[in-house]
Amino acid sequence: MEVKTTMLDRERLQKDERLLRAVTGLDDKRFEALLPSFETALLEAGTPRRSAQPRQRKVGGGRKPHLRSVEEQLIYILFYFKCYPTFDLAGLLFGLDRSQANRWMHRLQPILEAALGRKMALPERKLSSIEEFVEQFPEVKRVMVDGTERGIQRAQDREKQRENYSGKKKRHTRTHLAMVSEEKRVLVMSPAYPGKTHDKGVWNQEQWAKGIPKEVEIQADAGFQGIAKEHPKTRTPHKKPRGGELSEEQKEENHALARERVVCEHAFAGVKRYGIVCQVYRNRVADFDDRSMVTAAGLWNFYLMAA
Q: N or C terminus of the chain: which is more exposed, having fewer CB within 10 Å?
Protein backbone atom coordinates (compact mmCIF):
# COMPACT_ATOMS: atom_id res chain seq x y z
CA MET A 1 0.00 0.00 0.00
CA GLU A 2 1.40 3.40 -0.98
CA VAL A 3 0.95 6.13 1.62
CA LYS A 4 1.64 9.73 0.70
CA THR A 5 2.73 12.02 3.53
CA THR A 6 3.01 15.79 3.41
CA MET A 7 4.17 18.62 5.60
CA LEU A 8 1.54 19.95 8.02
CA ASP A 9 -0.64 22.53 6.29
CA ARG A 10 0.80 25.93 7.30
CA GLU A 11 -2.09 27.84 5.72
CA ARG A 12 -4.59 25.88 7.76
CA LEU A 13 -2.57 26.47 10.93
CA GLN A 14 -2.44 30.19 10.15
CA LYS A 15 -6.19 30.40 9.67
CA ASP A 16 -7.07 28.35 12.77
CA GLU A 17 -5.40 29.88 15.83
CA ARG A 18 -6.77 27.22 18.17
CA LEU A 19 -5.13 24.55 16.00
CA LEU A 20 -1.85 26.47 15.88
CA ARG A 21 -1.79 26.67 19.68
CA ALA A 22 -2.59 22.98 19.97
CA VAL A 23 0.30 22.10 17.63
CA THR A 24 2.96 24.62 18.69
CA GLY A 25 1.88 26.10 22.02
CA LEU A 26 1.93 29.61 20.49
CA ASP A 27 -0.74 31.69 18.82
CA ASP A 28 -0.07 33.39 15.48
CA LYS A 29 1.08 36.67 17.07
CA ARG A 30 3.66 34.97 19.28
CA PHE A 31 4.75 32.61 16.49
CA GLU A 32 5.46 35.56 14.19
CA ALA A 33 7.28 37.37 17.02
CA LEU A 34 9.60 34.38 17.58
CA LEU A 35 10.24 33.68 13.89
CA PRO A 36 12.85 36.45 13.20
CA SER A 37 14.99 35.46 16.20
CA PHE A 38 14.75 31.80 15.20
CA GLU A 39 15.85 32.66 11.65
CA THR A 40 18.81 34.67 12.96
CA ALA A 41 19.87 31.82 15.27
CA LEU A 42 19.50 29.39 12.34
CA LEU A 43 21.79 31.50 10.14
CA GLU A 44 24.34 31.85 12.94
CA ALA A 45 24.37 28.09 13.47
CA GLY A 46 25.10 27.46 9.79
CA THR A 47 24.80 24.14 7.98
CA PRO A 48 25.97 21.17 10.11
CA ARG A 49 28.83 19.14 8.68
CA ARG A 50 28.91 15.44 9.43
CA SER A 51 32.48 14.93 8.36
CA ALA A 52 35.78 16.76 8.28
CA GLN A 53 36.42 15.44 4.76
CA PRO A 54 36.57 18.01 1.92
CA ARG A 55 33.27 18.68 0.18
CA GLN A 56 32.74 16.37 -2.80
CA ARG A 57 29.74 18.19 -4.28
CA LYS A 58 29.25 21.83 -5.07
CA VAL A 59 27.14 23.92 -2.72
CA GLY A 60 23.47 23.03 -3.25
CA GLY A 61 24.19 19.49 -4.40
CA GLY A 62 22.94 16.31 -2.79
CA ARG A 63 19.61 15.40 -1.23
CA LYS A 64 17.34 18.35 -0.46
CA PRO A 65 16.07 18.78 3.09
CA HIS A 66 12.41 18.07 3.77
CA LEU A 67 12.07 21.00 6.17
CA ARG A 68 13.20 23.68 3.76
CA SER A 69 11.72 26.91 5.07
CA VAL A 70 12.42 28.60 8.39
CA GLU A 71 8.70 28.43 9.21
CA GLU A 72 8.59 24.67 8.66
CA GLN A 73 11.60 24.14 10.91
CA LEU A 74 10.14 26.29 13.68
CA ILE A 75 6.79 24.52 13.42
CA TYR A 76 8.55 21.15 13.60
CA ILE A 77 10.57 21.85 16.76
CA LEU A 78 7.63 23.55 18.49
CA PHE A 79 5.39 20.63 17.52
CA TYR A 80 7.92 18.20 19.01
CA PHE A 81 8.08 20.13 22.30
CA LYS A 82 4.32 20.66 22.54
CA CYS A 83 3.12 17.18 21.56
CA TYR A 84 6.25 15.06 22.27
CA PRO A 85 5.52 12.47 19.58
CA THR A 86 7.64 9.43 18.86
CA PHE A 87 10.05 9.96 15.98
CA ASP A 88 8.01 7.50 13.92
CA LEU A 89 4.93 9.69 14.28
CA ALA A 90 6.83 12.96 13.77
CA GLY A 91 8.40 11.53 10.63
CA LEU A 92 5.03 10.38 9.30
CA LEU A 93 3.49 13.84 9.73
CA PHE A 94 6.45 15.77 8.30
CA GLY A 95 7.50 13.44 5.49
CA LEU A 96 10.68 12.22 7.22
CA ASP A 97 11.98 8.84 8.20
CA ARG A 98 12.61 8.04 11.85
CA SER A 99 16.33 8.87 11.84
CA GLN A 100 15.75 12.14 9.98
CA ALA A 101 13.10 13.16 12.51
CA ASN A 102 15.63 12.47 15.29
CA ARG A 103 18.42 14.45 13.61
CA TRP A 104 16.18 17.42 12.83
CA MET A 105 14.98 17.63 16.43
CA HIS A 106 18.49 17.58 17.91
CA ARG A 107 19.67 20.11 15.37
CA LEU A 108 16.79 22.54 15.94
CA GLN A 109 16.55 22.38 19.74
CA PRO A 110 19.76 24.40 20.34
CA ILE A 111 18.61 26.88 17.69
CA LEU A 112 15.24 27.32 19.43
CA GLU A 113 17.07 27.77 22.73
CA ALA A 114 19.35 30.38 21.15
CA ALA A 115 16.32 32.21 19.71
CA LEU A 116 14.68 32.32 23.15
CA GLY A 117 17.98 33.57 24.56
CA ARG A 118 17.92 36.43 22.05
CA LYS A 119 14.43 37.26 23.33
CA MET A 120 15.73 37.27 26.94
CA ALA A 121 13.19 34.57 27.79
CA LEU A 122 15.43 31.78 29.11
CA PRO A 123 15.69 31.35 32.88
CA GLU A 124 19.07 31.94 34.48
CA ARG A 125 20.94 28.82 35.55
CA LYS A 126 22.95 30.29 38.45
CA LEU A 127 22.81 33.10 40.97
CA SER A 128 26.41 34.12 41.47
CA SER A 129 25.90 37.39 43.33
CA ILE A 130 23.37 39.94 44.54
CA GLU A 131 24.66 42.38 41.92
CA GLU A 132 23.80 39.87 39.20
CA PHE A 133 20.27 39.45 40.57
CA VAL A 134 19.71 43.23 40.63
CA GLU A 135 21.03 43.56 37.09
CA GLN A 136 18.90 40.73 35.70
CA PHE A 137 15.70 41.32 37.73
CA PRO A 138 15.64 44.98 38.84
CA GLU A 139 11.83 45.09 39.32
CA VAL A 140 11.46 41.84 41.29
CA LYS A 141 10.54 42.30 44.95
CA ARG A 142 9.13 38.85 45.76
CA VAL A 143 10.12 35.38 44.56
CA MET A 144 8.66 31.93 45.13
CA VAL A 145 10.91 28.88 45.30
CA ASP A 146 9.74 25.32 44.72
CA GLY A 147 10.74 22.10 43.04
CA THR A 148 9.07 20.37 40.13
CA GLU A 149 9.50 16.77 39.05
CA ARG A 150 9.11 15.05 35.70
CA GLY A 151 8.62 11.34 35.19
CA ILE A 152 11.33 9.30 33.48
CA GLN A 153 11.55 5.71 32.33
CA ARG A 154 12.65 3.21 34.95
CA ALA A 155 16.35 2.47 34.53
CA GLN A 156 17.57 -1.10 34.28
CA ASP A 157 20.56 -0.37 36.50
CA ARG A 158 19.61 -0.91 40.16
CA GLU A 159 21.68 2.00 41.48
CA LYS A 160 20.12 4.40 38.98
CA GLN A 161 16.70 3.10 39.98
CA ARG A 162 17.36 3.98 43.61
CA GLU A 163 18.87 7.34 42.73
CA ASN A 164 15.95 8.46 40.59
CA TYR A 165 13.09 7.03 42.65
CA SER A 166 11.01 9.79 44.21
CA GLY A 167 9.31 8.80 47.45
CA LYS A 168 7.06 11.85 47.04
CA LYS A 169 5.80 10.90 43.57
CA LYS A 170 6.18 7.11 44.00
CA ARG A 171 7.86 6.88 40.61
CA HIS A 172 11.19 7.50 38.92
CA THR A 173 11.74 11.19 38.27
CA ARG A 174 14.20 14.00 37.69
CA THR A 175 13.72 17.20 39.65
CA HIS A 176 14.45 20.90 39.08
CA LEU A 177 14.33 23.73 41.58
CA ALA A 178 12.86 26.93 40.18
CA MET A 179 12.52 30.53 41.29
CA VAL A 180 9.36 32.24 40.04
CA SER A 181 8.28 35.90 40.01
CA GLU A 182 4.87 37.34 40.86
CA GLU A 183 4.18 37.53 37.10
CA LYS A 184 4.57 33.71 36.81
CA ARG A 185 7.90 34.03 35.00
CA VAL A 186 10.55 31.37 35.73
CA LEU A 187 13.55 33.48 36.74
CA VAL A 188 16.10 30.84 37.69
CA MET A 189 16.16 27.08 37.15
CA SER A 190 18.61 24.61 38.64
CA PRO A 191 20.21 21.74 36.73
CA ALA A 192 18.34 18.42 36.76
CA TYR A 193 18.81 16.40 39.96
CA PRO A 194 17.95 12.75 40.68
CA GLY A 195 14.37 12.24 41.82
CA LYS A 196 15.32 11.23 45.36
CA THR A 197 16.95 14.63 45.98
CA HIS A 198 14.93 16.80 48.37
CA ASP A 199 14.08 20.37 47.31
CA LYS A 200 15.96 21.76 50.31
CA GLY A 201 18.96 19.65 49.32
CA VAL A 202 18.97 21.27 45.87
CA TRP A 203 18.62 24.69 47.53
CA ASN A 204 21.67 23.98 49.69
CA GLN A 205 23.64 22.75 46.70
CA GLU A 206 22.81 25.72 44.48
CA GLN A 207 23.29 28.31 47.29
CA TRP A 208 20.75 30.73 45.85
CA ALA A 209 20.37 32.56 49.18
CA LYS A 210 23.74 34.24 48.60
CA GLY A 211 22.47 35.82 45.38
CA ILE A 212 19.10 37.18 46.55
CA PRO A 213 19.03 40.74 47.94
CA LYS A 214 17.89 41.07 51.56
CA GLU A 215 14.96 43.32 50.60
CA VAL A 216 13.52 40.66 48.23
CA GLU A 217 11.02 38.38 49.97
CA ILE A 218 11.38 34.62 49.52
CA GLN A 219 8.26 32.46 49.79
CA ALA A 220 8.60 28.68 50.03
CA ASP A 221 6.66 25.65 51.23
CA ALA A 222 7.14 23.67 54.42
CA GLY A 223 9.99 21.65 52.92
CA PHE A 224 12.23 24.72 53.12
CA GLN A 225 12.07 25.18 56.88
CA GLY A 226 15.29 26.75 58.08
CA ILE A 227 16.13 28.97 55.11
CA ALA A 228 15.15 32.00 57.23
CA LYS A 229 18.58 31.56 58.85
CA GLU A 230 20.14 32.22 55.43
CA HIS A 231 17.85 35.05 54.29
CA PRO A 232 16.13 37.46 56.70
CA LYS A 233 13.01 38.13 54.61
CA THR A 234 11.65 34.60 54.24
CA ARG A 235 8.12 33.23 54.64
CA THR A 236 7.35 29.53 55.04
CA PRO A 237 4.21 27.89 56.50
CA HIS A 238 3.89 27.27 60.22
CA LYS A 239 4.39 23.58 61.00
CA LYS A 240 2.04 21.92 63.41
CA PRO A 241 3.98 21.07 66.60
CA ARG A 242 4.21 17.43 67.57
CA GLY A 243 1.21 16.57 69.71
CA GLY A 244 -0.19 20.09 69.34
CA GLU A 245 -2.28 22.23 67.02
CA LEU A 246 -1.79 25.45 65.10
CA SER A 247 -3.58 28.54 66.37
CA GLU A 248 -6.31 30.11 64.24
CA GLU A 249 -3.98 33.01 63.48
CA GLN A 250 -1.25 30.63 62.28
CA LYS A 251 -3.75 28.76 60.10
CA GLU A 252 -4.90 32.01 58.52
CA GLU A 253 -1.30 33.01 57.85
CA ASN A 254 -0.69 29.65 56.18
CA HIS A 255 -3.79 30.12 54.01
CA ALA A 256 -2.70 33.63 53.04
CA LEU A 257 0.77 32.37 52.08
CA ALA A 258 -0.74 29.54 50.04
CA ARG A 259 -2.92 32.02 48.12
CA GLU A 260 0.17 34.03 47.21
CA ARG A 261 2.36 31.03 46.43
CA VAL A 262 -0.15 29.47 44.03
CA VAL A 263 1.44 31.65 41.35
CA CYS A 264 4.40 29.27 41.45
CA GLU A 265 2.14 26.31 40.67
CA HIS A 266 0.58 28.27 37.81
CA ALA A 267 4.06 28.85 36.37
CA PHE A 268 4.89 25.13 36.56
CA ALA A 269 1.56 24.35 34.89
CA GLY A 270 2.51 26.79 32.12
CA VAL A 271 5.87 25.12 31.56
CA LYS A 272 4.21 21.71 31.55
CA ARG A 273 1.86 22.68 28.76
CA TYR A 274 4.71 21.25 26.71
CA GLY A 275 4.45 17.49 26.49
CA ILE A 276 8.21 16.96 26.51
CA VAL A 277 8.32 17.95 30.20
CA CYS A 278 4.88 16.62 31.13
CA GLN A 279 4.94 13.11 29.67
CA VAL A 280 7.32 10.36 30.76
CA TYR A 281 10.73 11.34 29.37
CA ARG A 282 12.02 8.92 26.69
CA ASN A 283 15.10 10.52 25.09
CA ARG A 284 18.56 8.99 25.50
CA VAL A 285 20.99 11.86 24.78
CA ALA A 286 22.98 12.86 27.86
CA ASP A 287 21.74 16.03 29.62
CA PHE A 288 18.94 16.55 27.10
CA ASP A 289 16.41 16.22 29.92
CA ASP A 290 17.93 19.34 31.45
CA ARG A 291 18.14 21.27 28.15
CA SER A 292 14.57 20.43 27.20
CA MET A 293 13.26 21.63 30.57
CA VAL A 294 15.10 24.94 30.21
CA THR A 295 13.79 25.38 26.66
CA ALA A 296 10.21 24.65 27.79
CA ALA A 297 10.58 27.22 30.59
CA GLY A 298 11.91 29.70 28.01
CA LEU A 299 8.88 29.07 25.79
CA TRP A 300 6.56 29.73 28.74
CA ASN A 301 8.42 32.94 29.63
CA PHE A 302 8.26 34.05 26.00
CA TYR A 303 4.53 33.30 25.94
CA LEU A 304 4.07 35.69 28.88
CA MET A 305 6.40 38.36 27.53
CA ALA A 306 4.87 38.42 24.03
CA ALA A 307 1.27 38.70 25.28
A: N
